From TrEMBL:
It comes from Lojkania enalia. Keywords: ATP-binding, Ligase, Membrane, Mitochondrion, Mitochondrion outer membrane, Nucleotide-binding, Transmembrane, Transmembrane helix. This is THIF-type NAD/FAD binding fold domain-containing protein. It is a multi-pass membrane protein. CDD domains: YgdL_like (cd00755). The lineage of its organism: Eukaryota, Fungi, Dikarya, Ascomycota, Pezizomycotina.
């Protein structure tokens, strides 16, 4: 190699090439150096242009979300209200005045019910349209201890649905906006404001007791799916009573709003994603939710797409205020979040006060799931027998909850072939090419079946599929049209994404 370089340098042609390469490197380095120096000069100029902090230039730290930590200076009226609230919480507020303000609640809930409400501690996570109306109703109804959790600030677009925010509040933290306004209405209420993002990591601290009192109820008014699922899972695992608001966006019919178990919520993308994620984590019911059964239709509002030019600029996910937050505009009629929030507060008030009430029952299809599970067990035994295995004592790694998840959340209770919703069965989609039984443990035989291999059909369709595909020589491509094949492929790829939540 060294001799080749020596010969190349000695030749005139090689010398010219070498000179050109060296010159290019020198020129490139000079240009890059000049650009770096230019950037450094501009940065220095910018820094020099920033005035020193003093009486004429006051500066405060910004929060981790890029907002001013002290976004507003209290006015004299704010200061008077804050002082009145502080005195009221110390007991310098006549009890007769409190009872007079709460007189209508008192005669409705009785003294015992109102006492329970007045000593309750409620946490509201999410203080936008839904959360602000829920909080305002709870405070007006007598709840004396409220913890508010939200990382966001009031914007101009918030004002079409926020319960108490005004133009003067734009740019201020939502939790403090609510506190400032409600202290003027119920000054005896204690507000524990947390200008923070809720997350799985911070949940133990954010949902912790207040002065030794565990929360009597938690309200989920979050519109981000990851935070929402983390909150509901934490409450479920730690036996905290919680009610969740599903999506109010793109809804307009107040007659279709219900309070029911999460397993019964339908016709809402946020509800569907939340329910499916929770079910993958083993939480299938037991959480009351407020949801709308209104269906989309011609002329109705839809999630607005991002303009095409935004995709040409790079990763659209970077447009979100935080990672994994939505970046598209969600159309919201200002009245609907208010109705959702009032429904949430109403439920919490009745629960805490012990007032009689009921909500929609769950689907109660456990018997159907058991039947489908039994048929699947039999199908796996037949498949094992057809391959020469001893199927006696064969166990399949699928539970009743798994069946319910596949039927309700993946296939929405309809056959993938015909769309029928009666006499349903789960069956393998593809003929297995590898071993189907693990018998390495003495005395135990386990099927290697996985949930993502199963599809939902009617019993008659499943029998035909098993005979011709699983035990015969045909492929799904030989039996079904392109639309069915594409649908199955889409469902299976979607299920692979949800498997990480199990």
């Amino acid at each position: 190699m060294s001799s080749w370089i020596s010969r190349a340098i000695e030749s005139r042609h090689g010398q010219l090439i070498t000179t050109a390469v060296v010159s290019g490197v020198v020129v490139g380095g000079t240009i890059l150096g000049f650009q770096k120096a230019k950037r450094m000069y501009r940065v220095a100029q910018l820094k020099d242009s920033i005035p020193d902090i003093g009486e004429n230039h006051h500066a405060t730290r910004i929060t981790e979300y890029g907002a001013a930590s002290e976004a507003f200076q209290p006015s004299k009226e704010d200061e008077r209200n804050m002082e009145l609230a502080a005195r009221a919480r110390r007991g310098d507020y006549a009890e007769d005045l409190v009872l007079e303000q709460l007189a209508r609640n008192r005669v409705f809930l009785t003294d015992d019910g109102l006492d329970k409400l007045r000593t309750a501690f409620v946490i509201v996570v999410g203080c936008g349209g839904v959360g602000s109306h829920a909080t305002a109703s709870l405070a007006r109804s007598g709840v004396s201890k409220l913890r508010l959790i939200d990382f966001d600030q009031v914007t101009l677009s918030s004002l079409n649905r926020h319960a108490v925010a005004t133009l003067a509040d734009v740019g201020t933290p939502k939790v403090h906006t609510i506190r400032r306004r409600l202290e003027q209405i119920t000054p005896w209420t204690y507000f524990d404001c947390r200008n923070e993002l809720f997350s799985e990591v911070s949940a133990p601290n954010q949902l912790a007791p207040l002065n030794g009192q565990a929360p009597d109820y938690v309200i989920d008014a979050i519109d981000n799916i990851d935070s929402k699922v983390a909150l509901l899972k934490y409450c479920h695992d730690n036996n905290l009573r919680v009610i969740s608001s599903m999506g109010a966006g793109c809804k307009s019919d107040p007659t279709r709003i219900f309070i029911g178990d999460i397993s019964a919520s339908t016709d809402d993308p946020l509800s569907k994603s939340t329910r499916r994620r929770l079910r993958a984590m083993g939480v299938k019911d037991g959480i009351p939710v407020v949801f709308s059964t209104e269906k989309p239709g011609p002329g109705k509002a839809e999630l607005l797409p991002l303009p095409e030019e935004e995709f040409t600029k790079g990763q659209v996910g970077e447009l979100g205020v935080l990672p994994d937050f939505r970046v598209r505009i969600l159309p919201v009629l200002g009245t609907m979040p208010a109705i959702f929030g009032l429904a949430v507060a109403n439920h919490v008030i009745l629960e805490i006060a012990g007032y009689p009430h009921d909500y929609l029952p769950s689907k109660s299809r456990d018997k159907m799931y058991d039947g489908i599970l039994g048929a699947l067990q039999g199908a796996e035994e037949k498949l094992a027998k057809s391959r020469g295995f001893d199927f006696q004592g064969l166990k399949i790694p699928i539970t009743q909850d798994d069946v319910g998840y596949l039927v309700e959340e993946v296939y929405h209770g309809r056959s993938i072939v015909s769309g029928l919703s009666t006499r349903l069965a789960l069956v393998r989609w593809n003929k297995p090419v590898d071993e189907i039984i693990d018998d390495r443990t003495p005395g135990q035989k386990n099927s290697l079946l996985q949930m993502k291999e199963l599809v939902l059909m009617t019993k008659e369709e499943a029998m035909k599929h098993q005979k011709e595909v699983l035990q015969g020589d045909k492929r799904p491509e030989d039996l079904y049209n392109k639309k069915i094949l594409a649908t199955v492929d889409s469902k299976m790829r979607e299920e692979e994404k949800y498997e990480r939540f199990r």
